[in-house]
Amino acid sequence: MSSTRTRFAVVAAAALALAAPLAIRTAADAATTHTAVKADSFTAAQVLAGVQANMTTANKVNSKPHINTMTRAQNVNVYQVASGVYAYTSSMAIDTDGSDPDPDPDHQGQTTWQDSNGKALGAHHVPFYVLGDDCWDRKSPCPHFFFKEHNIKGRQFALMFYKGKCIGSIFGDTQTANDQTTSDNDSRELGEASVKAAQLLGIPSSGTTGGVDNGVTVVMFSGPSWVVNGTNANLNANTQALVQKALDDLGASMGGTPPPPPGSTFEAETGTLSAGGTFDSNHLGFTGTGFANTANAVGAFVEIPVTAATAGTKTLSFRYSDGTTAARPATISVNGTSRGTLNFPTTANWDTWATASISVPLTAGTNTIRVIGTTAGGTANIDSVTIS
Ligand code: GCU
Ligand code: CA
Fold it and tell me: What is the pLDDT at residue 13?
């Protein structure tokens, strides 16, 4: 019920300046191959990429376009991106209903939905999104997306994405039905959310001057198990607590590729080389896009950045090749500290890869692994390092 249209002219320039396209990630990004390990956890970027890949004509739910609440363009569509999950990208106009430190001219003390104690949801406390109150065309099925036809109720959970941020949100208020004349808000609109949702996403949250014209993606999870309970005091926390579960469920149901689990494989070609080294691809059997070929000299090295989920002693397993007749031992240093010498025995030829392992302490987060040749041959060709 929501913000006024009169502020349009006032904020149009500012909102345009703020608007920026979402970073487009392709399906190929989402499908980047990693070591085959069951999905543990999906990132917001991965899930958004999957959602965007599924926002296709074939998955469109509405037959008539919705109105972008801020720009008034009739170009907002809703897509079923997974079973029971619906997504749209639009503006964010700011709803201040239910609480009014900064009321917009359409401010109302009530929201359509209430908290678990029957109190109006406070727009300054609860991140909520706004959907149409009825079917504008009074038809069934509705030509627009109409929540009642999709197993969506008050306080229904959604993920909201904007410029690299991801929050949880609930269905809190509705656009006015088509039976009144006092406002041009109507149930065809999509693109409004509460002050709190805006604040969490880094969007200007004033009910009169805030909002953004485009780039906010709302992904609604239907069904009773995704209705969030709680009061104005704890609904935000209860909602944010569901974000990772929602990312994981949706990521898995879209068939997304999981992120590499902690302790996975890091390609040598993501690293750097001492003088004279090159990243090559002229021998068979490497993974990624190539392998490290250091200069043939004592002290020649390849340095590979890796990440570890937790601190502790881990095994580094280097995939390497040494097609000569002499082993290529190397000092292994971690974050600048030598952790011993690892032998890299010969392999049948340069197309044959073997593994050499060493235990080292790692810190949580990024660590720098250096493989430093101790003989005149430099290091073996290094393809990757796996942490376990
Ligand atoms: C050959 C081989 C390289 C290798 C080098 C070496 O040139 O093609 O991949 O790095 O020998 O001896 O280090
Ligand atoms: Ca070499």
Answer: 27
Strands 381-387 and 265-267: antiparallel
Q: Which tokens is 228 given?
A: 């969030």
Element (H, E) at 205: none
Closest by CA position to 387, among listed 340, 323, 317, 329: 317
Which atom of ligand 1 is nearest to 328's Cα?
13
Element (H, E) at 219: strand 212-221
**Residue 124: both structure tokens together:** 């300054």
Look at ligand 1, atom 9, and give the residue with the nearest C-alpha. Answer: 293
Distance CA 82, CA 273 (A): 44
The CA distance from 227 to 239, in Å, is: 9
List pLDDT tens digits, range 98-134: 987 888 888 899 999 999 999 999 999 999 999 999 9
249-301 confidence digits (pLDDT tens): 998 888 755 555 544 899 999 999 999 999 999 999 888 899 999 999 999 99
**Comparing C-alpha atoms, which of 336, 297, 92, 320 is closest to residue 190?**
92
Chain mean position to CA 357: 34
> What is the distance, to the nearest Å, from the Cα of residue 231 to the centroid of all Cα atoms in its chain?
28
Q: What is the pTM of this model?
A: 0.60
Distance CA 73, CA 61 (A): 18
HSE-CB at 371 with a 13 A cutoff on CA atoms is 34
How far apart (Å, rounded) are the C-alpha atoms in residues 110 and 99?
A: 9
Is residue 95 within a helix (H) or strand (E), and if so which, with residue range?
strand 85-95
- CA 56 to chain centroid, in Å, comes to 19
Atom of ligand 1 nearest to the CA of 296: 13
Look-up of token digits 């909602």: 239
91 CB near ligand 1 (under 6 Å): no
Q: Give me the residue label for tokens 């999905």.
A: 39
Q: Which segment of 30-44, 103-117, 183-197 scores lowest on mean pLDDT?
A: 30-44
Q: Is the CB of 112 under 6 A from ligand 1?
A: no
